[in-house]
Amino acid sequence: MDYQALAQLLYPQVTDTPEMLEEKYPHRNVPEGAVITRMAPSPTGFVHLGNLVQGLTSERMAHQSGGVLFLRVEDTDAKREVPGAVEILIDTLKHYGICFDEGATVDGDSGDYGPYRQRQRAAIYHVYAKKLVSEGKAYPCFCTEEELSAMREKQEANKETTGYYGKYAIWRDRPLADIEAQLAAGNPWVLRFRSEGSIENQFKFDDLVKGKLTITENDVDNVLLKSDSIPTYHFAHAVDDHLMRTTHVVRGDEWLPSLPFHIQLFQALGFKLPKYVHIGPLMKMDGTSKRKLSKRKDPELALTYYKSEGFPVQAVYEYLMTILNSNFEDWRRANPDASAEDFKFSPKKLNPAGSLFDYAKLVDVSKNVISRMDAETVYQLLVSWAEEFDPDFAGKLKADPEFATKILAIGRGGKKPRKDLAVWKEAKPYMGFFYDDYLEAPVFDEKFDKAVIRSVLEKFLAVYDYADDSAAWFDKVKAITEEIGFTTDMKAYKADPDAFPGTVADVSTFIRQAVTGKVNSPDLYTVMQILGKERSLARIQKVMNQL
Questions:
Q1: What residues contact 102, with CB distance under 8 A and at least 6 apart?
Q2: What are the distances in angstroms from CA 297 to CA 260, 291, 361, 441?
Q3: DSSP H/E element including 214
Q4: What is the pLDDT of residue 150?
Q5: Which end of the chain is more exposed for a tag (fewer CB within 10 A), N or C?
Q6: Is 296:362 a contact under the CB 8 Å cutoff?
Q7: What is the pLDDT of residues 142-152, one digit of tens each?
Q8: How many domains does the chain have?
Q9: Is residue 392 domain-shared with residue 467, that is, in the same domain?
Q10: How far apart are CA 16 and CA 542, in angstroms?
């Protein structure tokens, strides 16, 4: 076979050479040891937690090393593409703090190693396709779908491995005249890789997460270019990662079965193999067993879920760090005020089997993150969330920022800050009572006579002084308690509850319910200071009138 003649026959329009492309896309000028990596999603429109895990791993590896993170869109499968998906992906990842140094953008490309959308790189792939054909490493295959189906059925009946290999690779060594006849007839064809591998052979391979793997060689003549001349993922990623000078490929471990072919392909093309970082799936407990997070079953897989629930970006980021690197929590305890970006992330600390997603742990991390924020930051983030998901509440917050910030400052700061909020969705139930429109009518415990409750509120109104400090305020509450025959001695009450009709806690609760409509609220003295004298007393008076 004259492979040069075959290459010219298949790709007469290709005049560029690999050498010209090497010159066009030179080695990057980066520090020694810098990681060049990418996110290379398909534009399906669904951005999930796995994307964020991969993005976070890639971003930390690149930016900690003084390297480059770029976005490449793998849009070779036109059937799966969703309009606007690239914009959704970029906006969502940007929301979670993953910003690209170069790559595909909403309205084009940014960077010197593009195009960054694979469908726009067809001419580049054809250069390498022609090279492989000219070296006898690839060939055209004119098998029809019917022929391939019949082949699969025969292999299954014989209990053989399915695929295009060995005696089943019927176009592998066909004479040039047969190929010319098919082309002259206008029959469609795909370009296949000529594998020299054997499943009898194995070799060792180092993965940065999985460790040392034993790999069986690939013997299948896989498709490189489909009948529309668009490449498969396998071929495109090899060419792109070489020309874009990728040093590390971060991807899900569902790609491990393809690794033998990818290694083979890099060798055939004469490319240096990048380091591979195969990440295990995100798992969750389902009863007593683990399973992968599922798009169908688990709303928490979609990143839109975290935004709508109101998890701060920093909380999601820190939670993912705890499941990616087990030493992050110890580091955070030792460095409570440091930026999470100061943590030294390592792909070698990723769990090879995949990380276990724990919603309760995420909530706990989020409470800690929000408790460390100052009131102004909480206000800004809460308003931003509410504008999208609760516009009426956003309007209330924005009408008087100072008032809202004072509310959010309750219990903040100090060594043991309050942890009232885990998500912004909880803010309105927590603080809504400060706004008259959200104030609910109190439901008092039926074991207390309404006349007693009314008497407590009446006495409190008579002695309340806005100028009192919290100690003087509580002294007055205790005095009312004793006046109505309740006790301020909680130990005595616990020892013999039947000896007293009620306690100072009950008296405080009556006042709390009258002011807030709730049994539980932040510190009542502080609440009344923020509400102001007139609003506080008006609320108490209104409840008295209703009793």
A1: 68, 70, 71, 110, 111, 112, 113, 116
A2: 33, 11, 20, 39
A3: strand 211-216
A4: 96
A5: N
A6: no
A7: 999 999 999 99
A8: 3
A9: no
A10: 85
Tokens of 392: 């009426």
Q: In which domain, by residue range, is 379 found?
A: 375-438
Q: Which of 279, 313, 339 is the last residue of a domain?
A: 279
Q: Contact 324/345 with Cβ under 8 angstroms?
A: yes
In this prediction the pTM is 0.86
Do both 488 and 535 map to the same domain?
Answer: yes
Mean pLDDT confidence for 247-274: 96
- Which residues neighbour 190 within 8 Å (Cβ) at sequence distance 6 or greater? 140, 141, 223, 224, 225, 226, 227
Q: Would you state the pLDDT for residue 378?
A: 97
Structural domain contains residue 94 = no
81/546: higher pLDDT: 546
Average pLDDT for the chain: 94
| CATH of residue 460 | 1.10.10.350
Distance, CA of 277 to CA of 250 (rounded, Å): 5
Residue 314: per-residue pLDDT: 94
How much of the chain, in percent, has pLDDT values that exceed 70? Answer: 100
Does the residue 485 lie in any domain? Answer: yes
Residue 243 contacts residue 113 (beta carbons within 8 Å): yes
Structural domain contains residue 369: no
Which H/E stretch holds residue 334? helix 328-334
Do 434 and 454 belong to one domain? no
522 and 498 in contact (C-beta within 8 Å)? no
The reply to whether 368 falls in a domain is no
Write the pLDDT tens digit of every residue in 458-488. Answer: 999 999 999 999 999 999 999 999 999 999 9
Reported as a pLDDT band with limits 50, 70 and 90, residue 414 is confident
